[in-house]
Amino acid sequence: MKLSTLGRHGKESFKNLARNGWMTFASISAVTVTLLLVGVFVVIMLNLNEFSKSLEEDVEVSVFIALDTEQTEIDNLQQTIERLSGVKSVEFSSKAEQLEQYSNSLGADGDVLFELFEQDNPLYDVLVVKAEDPQNTQAVANRISELDYVQEARYGDEKVERLFSVINTSRNVGIVLIVGLLFTAMFLISNTIKITIIARSQEIEIMRLVGATNTFIRWPFFLEGLLLGFLGSLVPILSIVLGYDALYNWLSPRIQGGFIELLPVSPFLIQVSLLLASLGAIIGVWGSVMSIRKFLKV
Fold first, then answer.
1. 138-189, pLDDT tens digit by residue?
2. Using one digit for the tens of pLDDT, what is the confidence trace for 255-282?
3. How are beta strands 126-131 and 87-93 bridged, if at all?
4. Percent of the chain scoring above 90 in pLDDT
5. CA distances (Å), origin 45, targets 41, 49, 153, 178
6. What does pTM read for this prediction?
7. What is the C-alpha separation between 140 and 87, in angstroms, rounded?
8. CA–CA separation, 59 vs 141, rounded Å?
9. In this predicted structure, what is the pLDDT of residue 256?
10. How far apart are CA 281 and CA 24, in angstroms?
11. Which domains does the chain have, with CATH numbers?
12. Do 244 and 43 contact (CB within 8 A), yes or no?
């Protein structure tokens, strides 16, 4: 298609949007409301996903080594675990380090405990193991527990399984909600544009009678849908950018150092803005294409 023809279609699209003011407003409003909901859910889900990842990364297997195990045997056990499939990392923590950590967690009372057991330490040497995929922690722990010199492989099975269950459920629910909202947006914009096209059916028929091709007729509506979707995404983008920036600046100092952190403003908001603009354009184009298709059937 020539640039001059494309330019003509573009001008015609802007004229049609202005000529059908109320229908244009209705279409943009439908996209705006739906994309605003989608944007809010996307922001929430991405932050929850990041929070879930940080929780998953903290899941580890504590491998308690049998008492009186020689250091050479411990080193061999560590190398064996490192070679297991699905194991990401293995770190050794001696029983002296375990006692120090435990006494530190007790505060002032811990000093007395440390002095009491420093010479005759009853704790185990421990290998701290992390799985490549935290969801496979149980399988990794089961394999390790069968190895020689392993007293116990502990990972908090019930709590970890509940954690993964909640994480997977929240992710699935979020995906279903977002997909449902997108289909709702497509349905609304398709029907809104369809009403506009029905009102201009006579115009389409005249264009066909004078020899206009389906492609020539379709292009202005294609561009109109693109513009409607893009314009409908501007308010959601602006609202989410300003809202998230204000929330981040207010909440970050209050949760600093905690186990919950928000995704940083940049490049997160840029990515969300591009996503919403793309979704708006796709929804608008899809709605236009679906609506005009039946009018172009021979």
1. 889 899 999 999 999 888 766 777 777 877 788 788 788 878 877 776 777 6
2. 776 667 788 888 899 999 999 999 888 8
3. antiparallel
4. 17
5. 6, 6, 33, 9
6. 0.70
7. 7
8. 11
9. 72
10. 15
11. 3-56+162-296 (no CATH), 60-154 (3.30.70.3040)
12. yes
- Residue 198 in this model has a pLDDT that exceeds 80: no
Determine how many CB atoms are found less than 10 A away from the CB of residue 59.
18
Task: Give just the sign of the alpha carbon dihedral 142, 146, 148, 152.
Answer: positive
Find the farthest-apart pair of alpha carbons in the chain and give their distance in angstroms, rounded. Answer: 101
Report, as an integer, the average pLDDT of 57-75: 87
Facing residues of 91 across strands? 128
CB 276 within 8 A of CB 237: yes
Cβ atoms within 10 Å, residue 57: 11
Q: Which residues pair with 130 in a beta bridge?
A: 89
Return the HEC string of the chain.
CCHHHHHHHHHHHHHHHHHCHHHHHHHHHHHHHHHHHHHHHHHHHHHHHHHHHHHHHCCCEEEEECCCCCHHHHHHHHHHHHCCCCEEEEEEECHHHHHHHHHHHCCHHHHHHHHHHCCCCCCCCEEEEEECCHHHHHHHHHHHHCCCCEEEEECCHHHHHHHHHHHHHHHHHHHHHHHHHHHHHHHHHHHHHHHHHHHCHHHHHHHHHCCCCHHHHHHHHHHHHHHHHHHHHHHHHHHHHHHHHHHHHHHHHHHCCCCCCCCCHHHHHHHHHHHHHHHHHHHHHHHHHHHHHHHHCC
